[in-house]
Design a protein that fits this description.
By secondary structure, the protein is mainly beta. It is built from 8 helices and 40 strands. The chain has 2 domains: 554 residues, 8 Propeller (Methanol Dehydrogenase, Chain A); 96 residues, Cytochrome c-like domain (Cytochrome Bc1 Complex, Chain D, domain 2), CATH 1.10.760.10.
Length: 691
């Protein structure tokens, strides 16, 4: 069922009258001065704007590599580093924290929290970490197995460690902690595995838990924690609590110090298909919502739900930016967010009132927002059943975790935008023990193939300069493919972004003109930062392809030749050089021909079912794409398949053993299905037939 799309967005108008939000550091840059970046969004408002301007649009052409550090884990490098007192702190997959001299790159210490490798299987979108926080001499990190750890910034030794989740459930932490005064806040992930979301506040000095706020209601028979949960329960039906409900706070948090409000973004439903979690429908509060909480008590203040009855993985966890904007002649305290669903929202951050909302990319699940109610005007065909339907955006969203930024100088938000499409279908039956999403990943192959072909031909990405007052696009930088990184904007009239072309680039913030670009041998998908040490401004970014960006349509990136992942640090006049690309970087793994398909139809059908239940989330629908495109395994991987899937031989890379859910014969059936799929698509992908 191919659904109609909205027309492309029109070019924007000029903005008039704007005042930036409070809380920015002083813009003076005296000789010998140091300017830190201590939280993932730099300031509480999460603008990712730096007042530094030593590097500017006029001299950025002199930017060169100051130093770099090789990163040890070849998975998605999504972290925003932090800098304090001349030390740069970085975090890699598996939550390994390293401290460097921020000017020279000399390693000062390294801390490995020794996350049990089995937790890699619970991370739906790679074993990533998106950042750290620094406060009062301590570095704070959340770990994949759910711990929140405070490290001594000077030595790297743990000061305290607290388990924030129930490890018997499917919780993980991939987001960055936030420190607001004497409190450190952390959320969690795991909605795809079947958990109940919440956010917690801890005493930054001792690790004592101060408050916790759940995002969806629990079992009514046990009583509700607060009035907000009782109100939310009315919007659910059935026995949703047995399946967790979802709504995890897996990424963005921001804070208004004057209002005393913390803003959290909540995630998707668990399971995805609403019929299986809330069979009578309902809004399912507080899924896919922006929620304001009192920072001192964690008490609910207001919410705005972006997607009532969410069932497309349209999380509202993407970064939320606070600013003061002149709108209709009135200075408004606003919160801005561009979540997965394709809209850019501007809310009054004191009350939650919707001020405006417009699309940043073509979508087809809704035709707009009803400003009288604040609710989306849904396309009823997007409420999918068991027959696959093409919906845009897909689960990857029009804007995902890759942070956008906002400049109070230009009044523009800079957003990494993607145009995506996906086939959604509900399972005929649902067993949470074998499939936690409630979706169907196979069947109706002719429809799925048609949708996949359309998605391959129409998916794209660009950097958008968005005017939040007029809700229009000011300028755009298109990329050949989607997959470019997060954004930094500076007072030097510069926007920095890593590109899918394995480069790091700078654009004029006012016009979008590219003024500098450097090949860096990998894709910097993370957001950059900038800081100053002893009067010298630096720009730093992690470069390492992976994470959710690499989960879909991997065959479209078969010519993406990658070197090792690295932390890259630049300065004016930098003269460091990256070593030559290793020879193996020029080998395209997708070109391995498959072995002959010899299994019978019954075995292949069983393998298809088991693949959908256990593998599709990370390796793509119908084995198309994912962290690793399994249609194009090497002969060595085929030989070691059972040892990988059951023996856990690659668990250090995040591929944990499935011996607890798959028997040897079932694993063999999955292997047979993958060989069948490889042969099925080989001719179409390469123009050659398998032998």
């Amino acid at each position: 069922m191919m659904m109609l799309l909205r027309p492309a967005l029109a070019a924007g108008l000029m903005l008039a009258g704007l005042s930036g939000a409070s809380g920015q550091t002083d813009n003076s840059q005296a000789p010998g001065q140091s300017v830190d970046w201590q939280n993932t969004g730099r300031t509480y408002d999460e603008q990712r704007f730096s007042p530094l301007s030593q590097i500017h649009a006029g001299n950025v052409g002199q930017l060169g590599l100051a130093w770099y550090a090789d990163l040890t884990t070849d998975r998605g490098q999504e972290a925003t580093p932090v800098v304090a007192d001349g030390v740069l702190y970085n975090v890699e997959p598996w939550n390994i924290v390293t401290a460097y001299d921020a000017a020279t790159g000399r390693q000062l210490w390294r801390f490995d929290p020794q996350v049990p490798l089995r937790f890699g299987r619970l991370a739906c979108c790679d074993i990533v970490s998106r950042g750290l926080a620094y406060s009062d001499g301590k570095v704070f990190v959340g770990t994949l197995d759910g711990r929140l750890i405070a490290l001594d910034g000077a030595s790297g030794e743990p000061v305290w460690s607290i388990l924030t989740v129930d490890n018997s459930e499917g919780y993980t932490i991939t987001g960055a902690p936030r420190v607001y005064g004497d409190k450190v806040l952390i959320g969690n992930g795991g909605a795809e595995i079947g958990v109940r979301g919440y956010v917690s506040a801890y005493d930054a000095a001792t690790g004592e838990m101060l408050w916790r706020w759940h995002t969806v209601p629990g079992d009514p028979a046990l009583g509700f924690e607060n009035d907000a949960m009782a109100i939310a329960a009315v919007t659910w039906t059935g026995e949703w609590w047995h399946r967790g409900g979802g709504g995890t706070v897996w990424d963005s948090i921001s804070y208004d110090e004057d209002l005393g409000l913390v803003y959290i973004g909540t995630g998707n439903g668990s399971p995805w298909v609403q019929h299986w979690r809330s069979p009578g429908g309902g809004d399912n509060l507080y899924l896919a919502s922006i929620v304001a909480l009192d920072v001192e008590t964690g008490e609910y203040r207001w919410h705005y739900q972006t997607v009532p009855g969410e069932q497309w993985d349209y999380t509202a966890t993407q970064n939320m930016i606070l600013a003061d904007l002149m709108i209709d002649g009135r200075l408004r305290q606003v919160l801005m967010q561009a979540p997965k669903n394709g809209f850019f929202y501007v809310l009054d951050r004191a009350t939650g009132e919707l001020i405006s909302a417009e699309t940043i990319a073509p979508i087809n699940w809704a035709t707009g927002i009803d400003m009288a109610t604040g609710r989306p005007i849904e396309n009823p065909e997007a409420r999918y059943g068991t027959i696959p339907v093409m919906v845009s955006p897909g689960a990857g969203g029009a804007h995902n975790w890759n942070p956008m930024a906002f400049s109070p100088q230009t009044g523009l938000a800079y957003i990494p935008v993607t145009e995506t499409y996906m086939a959604y279908a509900a399972a005929e039956e649902y067993d949470p023990e074998v499939g936690t999403l409630g979706t169907a990943w196979s069947g109706h192959d002719d429809i799925r193939r048609e949708i996949a072909t359309y998605a391959d031909e129409h998916s794209k990405g660009w950097l958008s300069a968005w005017d939040p007052v007029t809700q229009t696009e000011r300028w755009r930088v298109p990329y050949a493919q989607k997959g470019s990184g997060g954004v930094l904007v500076t007072a030097g009239n510069l926007v920095f972004q890593g590109t899918i072309g394995t480069t790091f680039a700078a654009y004029r913030a006012d016009t979008g003109e590219k003024v500098w670009e450097m090949p860096v041998q990998n894709v910097p998908i993370a957001a950059p930062i900038t800081y100053m040490v002893d009067g010298v401004q630096y720009v730093a970014v992690n470069a390492g392809w992976g994470g959710g960006l690499a989960h879909v349509e991997r065959n479209a990136y078969s010519d993406l030749l990658l070197g090792p992942p690295r932390l890259l640090v630049f300065r004016l006049g930098g003269e460091a050089q990256l070593p030559p690309m290793p020879a193996e970087s020029f080998v395209v793994p997708e070109l391995n021909p498959p072995p002959p398909a010899t299994a019978d139809a019954e075995t292949v059908a069983l393998g298809e079912q088991l693949y959908g239940q256990n593998c599709a989330l990370c390796h793509g629908t119908a084995a198309r794409g994912g962290v690793k495109d399994l249609r194009h395994m090497s002969p060595e991987t085929h030989e070691a398949f059972a040892d990988i899937v059951l023996g856990g031989s690659l668990q250090a890379n995040g591929m944990a053993s499935f011996a607890d859910t798959l028997s040897a014969s079932q694993a063999a059936a999955v292997h047979a299905y993958l060989i069948f799929r490889a042969n099925e698509d080989w001719n179409a992908d390469t123009g050659r037939e398998a032998q």
